[in-house]
Write a structure and sequence with these properties.
With 465 residues, the protein is of the alpha/beta class. It has twelve helices and 18 strands. It folds into two domains: 294 residues, TIM Barrel, CATH 3.20.20.70; 123 residues, no CATH class.
Amino acid sequence: MKAINTLKISGFEVLPLVEGGKGISVSNGESSGAWAAAGGVGTFSGVNADSYDVDGRPVPQRYFGRTRVERHEELIAYAIKGGITQAKIAHDLSGGRGPIHMNVLWEMAAAERVLVGVLEGASGLIHGVTCGAGMPYRLAELAARYRVHYYPIVSSARAFRALWKRAYHKFSERLGGVVYEDPWLAGGHNGLSNSEDPEKPEDPYPRVVELRRVMREFGLDQVPIVMAGGVWFLREWEDWFDNPELGPVAFQFGTRPLLTKESPISDAWKRRLMTLKEGDVYLNRFSPTGMWSSAVENEFLREMKERCDRQIAYTREPIGDHAESFGTGPRHRPVFVTAHDLARAREWVAQGYTEAMRTPDSTLIFVTPEKMREIRTDQVECMGCLSACLFSNWSQDEGHTTGKKADPRSYCIQKTLQTISHSDDVQHQLMFAGHAAFRFSSDPFYSNGFIPTVRQLVERLVTGD
């Protein structure tokens, strides 16, 4: 394999190896500090990050506010404190030998307030901010204000063009790189547009070539592009090295750092990663963000699919084929369904799915009484972890509601991601992962259950494997 040349990223000459940001509580500062110390770019997650007590144990994030708005403020305080804590841990472990980046999602709750709070509280410890999940127009201005570099995450050249023309051209000197995240292969939330088919993945090479072409229009020839999503063996990307068509390129690893000694995920989660088969990670659209996301097949996703399969359309008045009356709720208020759907509904009720819950799309889903109580409780206990949530109808804008009915076909993302991060339950919680995660089970590096340190992983990556 070709030699891997260093790149200048956030003011440091480093290997073109970037740790992915991961998400809620899936970083603790240790992994990113070790990654930077090993010669790459360390990244901790600033999405509702954990902070720790004097014994190093995560501080439980409990909420006491009586209203969503009060709990929302508590969540922001937790997020800022956790981000500052993880920045300090990462900086100390890196010994100042490499850049530390903070990853945020623009669609998370109060993204701008959290970012400002962490950058102020960890001044000089963070060198770059990566940001996706939305169109973060304000990212460049905030990065310039706090004298850090910014790295927008995009899945198309068109998205970057829009960001540049609207805002980024004013702060070009702080643009450290552009992360191209493959919308079919990356883990977590994915940037698939309505014009792209989730069943037909596209080759990333021409899409990244197009991104570079647009960047060259704006004089950004030497600004690195960071390839994210589906990267496992660097030898498989050898034709991207020193490629004049692509310009300077780095590679981001989000899934492989999960399986390291420094990774804070549970041993149960690490064991599950080692057993995945191809196809166990797939795209779904259950997320309360409304975005596509990639996660591991388990009981959690199977229940979500089954919940949505037990679904029929209804009308409030008899219209056309919707002429059969069906009682819903404690008072059995009638709605009208087709004769075919009435038979299906009666079958589901006989199986124990006795509760018909209304959705914003004038459909009913059928769940057990236990599941309905869980859904209702999670909706009531919402703390506003997103800028806008389909599941609870929370919005951080004035009025604090999306104006739509809460959607029981989704879930509380804060609850499930916090639970999987702080327990051994990998079957009944959402488990994000990239689509290449199945390669853990066949990569000889991990044979006999071997779990490397971050340094061992970085050294392995440099060999091409």
